[in-house]
Each structure stands twice: as structure tokens, then as C-alpha cells.
Design brief:
This protein has nine helices and twelve strands. It has 303 residues and is α/β, with parallel strands linked by helices. The chain has one domain: UDP-N-acetylmuramoyl-L-alanine:D-glutamate ligase (3-Layer(aba) Sandwich). The longest helix is centred in the C-terminal third of the chain and has 18 residues.
Amino acid sequence: MNQTPRIICLGAMLWDVIGHSPVTLRIGDDVAGRIHQRPGGVALNVAVALARHGLTPAILSAVGRDAPGEALIAETRALGVETGWLWRDGPLPTDLYMAIEAPGGLVAAIADAHGLEAAGPAILGPLQDGTLGDAAAPWQGTLVIDGNLTLETLALIAGDPCLAQASLRIVPASPDKARRLAPLLGHPQAIFHINRAEAEALAGRPLGDAPLAAEAICGMGAARVIVTDGPRAAAEAARDLPTITQTPPPVTARHVTGAGDSFLAAHLAAELAGASRIEALDRAIRAAASHISAGHIAEKDSA
């Protein structure tokens, strides 16, 4: 087992099955295209992107004791992510995500994350039982948390003394799951990475743009919030600091799944390297644009 990690990504680790259509799709269309399978899930996407930035993240997730699970773990390790603390005691198969993308972006997706949901708070075991930390000696580092976790698990994280010294990066995973994050709004060391639709779901009302959305979530108790809005300006709001914005460069969308995860990883890597707020936001936007236009996670930023 390697030394205690300083960055842990907590949440979904599964196989992504992505179908790419070269033409715009309507319901019922049947077209020729490309289908790719690769390691995915919000937490794993972020971890892989962090590894590309030269960092050494670990992942806490649930993986089945089946052939797809063994293959997923092997490929994840090859991508530079530590997997030594996974929860593998459930009876369910390895989780799966299926999506269809077209030139205009995501058409539809289904996430089968029942294994992660079955794990529940047990996924936190290594951070509580002394393996990586406990209440007497809390783990110290950056914990990336995705909204695929159960509400029970997220609520436990919000008040767990075992995580009292962790810096949290929160990502909803989808607008449908954004409301699960409410228990973490008051956490003093949490930074929310969300898109405008997720901010609207969390706030329960329409929000006209990213600056308004970021400030609204801060108004609900969050210490710091970063909101993206597709090709429109992204924004960061924080307590007692001016809101900052940055507009993405125009790109042709070829691959949208995982763009937000690439954004988060680039932002975190930049701040760990000492970048300012505006520098980190700029690097994150460039990484997401590269991901969308090139169809892969942005390479290590040399800046």
C-alpha cells in the first residue's frame, strides 16, 4: 500500500459507455456512429484528470467483485489513480453509465450506480477506522465529493469529526442530484463546483447567469462557489470577496461527458500550485474547452 494520499476523490467509479452520433438526433432515430467504453464516473473522471496534471490522487468508491470490476481497477491504476481503499463487499455488479452524444451535446444518459448507493456510508470506512484517519487523527488533504453519494452519506460527511481537517470540493453530478448537497452548504471548508442548472436545482428557482447563480448559492450559506454555464461566462463567488467571471473561448463541441470534471481538476491543480482565483478559473475554463473540442481530458498544464 502506498503512503497516505493527500487528494481523495469520493464517489462514482464505473464504466462509461458513450455513443457518438455524427448528426443531430430525434427520438427514435437509428444512426451509424461510434461507441466507446472507458473508465468513468464523476469521482474517477476528476481523479484521472488530476493524475494528468502530475498529482497522485486516490479514489474511494464501490466496485463489484466481477470481471468488469477487475478490469476497471486495473485500468484505473494504469491511469495513475490509487485504488487500494475501494469498497468491494456488496453483492451488486460494477456500476455503469450509458450516454448518447450528438453535435449539439448530450442527448440522453442513464447512470446505473446502484453499487455505490448500496455501499452508503460504508464507503467512508478508511477515513474513519484509522486506515487513513479517524476522529482522533483526522485525515488532512483535499476531498473531492460527488453527488452520486447517498443523502445519508453526504449528511454524515457534513458533520463527521474524521473529516474536520479536510478541504472539500463538491460537485453535484447532475441537476437531479444537486439538492442532495444541501447538508454541505454550511461547511466552512467546502468549495462548490456546479453548473447553472445545478445551481438552479439547489436554489429551487431560476438564476439568469453564472454570477447570479454563484452569489445565490453563497447566499444560502456556501463559503465559495464556482458556476459554469456552457459557452457563457463562468463565475466564482466567495464570502467577503468580489465575484469574478471568465468567458470560455468558442469551440466546437465534440465530447461533453466529463467536461465539468476536467474543469474541477484543472482548477484544483492550479490552486494547489499557487494560482490566484482568476488564474485558476482561466486554467479550468481552458481545460474544459480543450476537453470538449478535442474529445479527451486536457493534458498537463505546463504553466
